[in-house]
């Protein structure tokens, strides 16, 4: 690879890492807010905040490219349905009835779903290096979940929300693979704004039905601050980072960086929930990082004469 290509790839992985960090906060808040918001309502507020924040920057960028938006309308609708409306609603719904530990474990199945979706849609097979990296990272996650004692894994309990989390991971795999087909005329901000706007339109009927069945509650100052976080950091910033990273390195390689999410989640829990840092945390996080490096590092190519 040339120096420029190497730098571009390195920047892409930094963006993907930042996306995982921001999403780790979203998962923690999603669990914390389970009694303050209904799942679809929280997702609607998230993307409404994102759309409003993006609008001043995105609308001028969209004006010259309305033809591309109309031409790719079906694909944009599908991407918004999978990645905006359906994925996070399923996650928030799952976090109501499953534990954070189970959700993190199931979230780690994302690379496997991405490999499957890449093979089904693009006929792209995972490399041995990617499979090896995935297994190493999963081992690190299991170290954290077992808290250093393998017998603890046998005592993990699974709940009804686990199926929703798994279904969400499949939706995210489809979204990430289909990102390859996004209209190239739209930059990251314009593209995310269109997805946000479509997502809000898709979520409104479901949120109205949800509100009719369960009248919404005023969340208070902490709830509003959390909504701003999931709308600005976990939606706008994280999705721009993720979309750009996937565009550069591809869905398969990008998928392995989600193994950083449980590592970041552990660190956030220690920082904000006063949990202690144990040796097994260090071992698990180090193993996860090794797996990500193995899966995403390009083999050293021969220098041309």
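-> sequence recovered:
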């Amino acid at each position: 690879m040339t120096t420029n290509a190497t730098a571009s790839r390195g920047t892409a992985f930094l963006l993907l890492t930042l996306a995982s960090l921001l999403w780790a906060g979203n998962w923690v808040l999603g669990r914390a807010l389970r009694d303050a918001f209904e799942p679809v309502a929280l997702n609607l507020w998230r993307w409404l905040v994102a759309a409003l924040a993006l609008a001043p920057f995105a609308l001028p960028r969209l004006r010259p490219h309305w033809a591309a938006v109309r031409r790719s309308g079906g694909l944009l609708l599908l991407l918004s349905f999978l990645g905006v409306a359906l994925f996070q609603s399923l996650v928030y719904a799952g976090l109501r009835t499953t534990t954070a530990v189970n959700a993190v474990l199931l979230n780690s199945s994302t690379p496997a779903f991405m490999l499957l979706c890449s093979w089904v849609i693009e006929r792209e097979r995972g490399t041995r290096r990617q499979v090896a990296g995935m297994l190493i990272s999963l081992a690190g996650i299991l170290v954290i979940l077992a808290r250093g004692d393998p017998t603890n894994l046998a005592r993990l309990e699974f709940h009804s929300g686990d199926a929703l989390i798994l279904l969400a991971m499949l939706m995210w795999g489809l979204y990430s693979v289909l990102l390859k087909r996004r209209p190239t005329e739209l930059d990251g901000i314009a593209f995310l704004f269109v997805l946000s706007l479509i997502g809000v339109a898709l979520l409104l009927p479901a949120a109205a039905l949800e509100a009719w069945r369960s009248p919404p509650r005023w969340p208070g100052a902490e709830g509003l601050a959390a909504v701003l976080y999931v709308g600005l950091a976990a939606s706008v910033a994280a999705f721009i980072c993720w979309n750009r990273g996937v565009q550069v390195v591809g869905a398969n390689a990008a998928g392995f960086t989600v193994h950083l999410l449980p590592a970041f989640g552990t660190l956030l829990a220690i920082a904000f929930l006063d949990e202690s840092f144990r040796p097994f945390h260090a071992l698990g996080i180090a193993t996860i990082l090794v797996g990500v490096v193995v899966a995403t590092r390009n083999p050293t190519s021969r220098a041309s004469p």
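The chain has a mean pLDDT of 81.
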